[in-house]
Amino acid sequence: MNKIYIDGRLAQDPEAKYTPNSKAVTSFNIANNENVQKPDGSWVTNATFYKVVTWNKLAETCAKHLKKGHHIFIEGRIFLRFYEANGNKYKDFGITAEKIVFISPLSKGFKKTEDKPEQPDLVIDMDDTEAVNKIFKDDETIPF
Predict the structure, then answer these.
(1) Which domain holds residue 55?
(2) Regarding beta strands 88-102 and 43-55, do their DSSP bridges make them parallel or antiparallel, or are they unpaired?
(3) 4-10 and 15-18 strand pairing
(4) pLDDT digits (tens, 9 = 90+) for 5-32
């Protein structure tokens, strides 16, 4: 089984491209912070950066709605690929996102219209308690 769940903030704006076969692909890096207690009792925050790649409709949605600093939750799988360029061999790894939940509140940058928010279906306004409770209605929906 190859499955990863991770949250973080975008370290840069997403980069959108299309393959020669017209498939949308969007990539970006996220920073995942972990607070660690040092032997002297003080705390330090360590950031780990992950490359994330999205494809097709999800790639188009991410390119349209995400910006540097937005908080997201990703469900995906780890990829590892080997390639050769200019006679040198390289190894590349990261996360292929299968689902993304946009966590940043609407007040942090997602556009709103008068009638309803202009945002993808996967965006959760964390300020909207009813919407959050609807998605995380019981422990079985939380992936950890």
Answers:
(1) 4-141
(2) parallel
(3) unpaired
(4) 999 999 999 999 999 999 999 999 999 9
CB burial of residue 108 (10 Å; 0-12, 13-18, 19+)? middle
pLDDT tens column, 89-110: 999 899 999 999 988 665 555 5
Q: Using an 8 Å Cβ cutoff, are 96 and 125 in contact?
A: no
Long-range own/partner contacts, residues 14-18 (CB < 8 A, 24 or more apart): 14/62, 14/63, 14/66, 14/67, 16/59, 16/60, 16/62, 16/63
Torsional sign, CA 54, 58, 61, 66: negative
Q: For residue 117, what is the domain's CATH number?
A: 2.40.50.140
Angle at 71 between CA 65 and CA 76, to 5 degrees: 85
Report the number of distinct structural domains present in the chain. 1
Rounded CA-CA distance 37/31 in Å is 19
The CA radius of gyration of the chain, in Å to the nearest whole number, is 17
Least confident of 12-16, 52-56, 78-82, 105-109: 105-109
Place of tokens 């997602």: 110
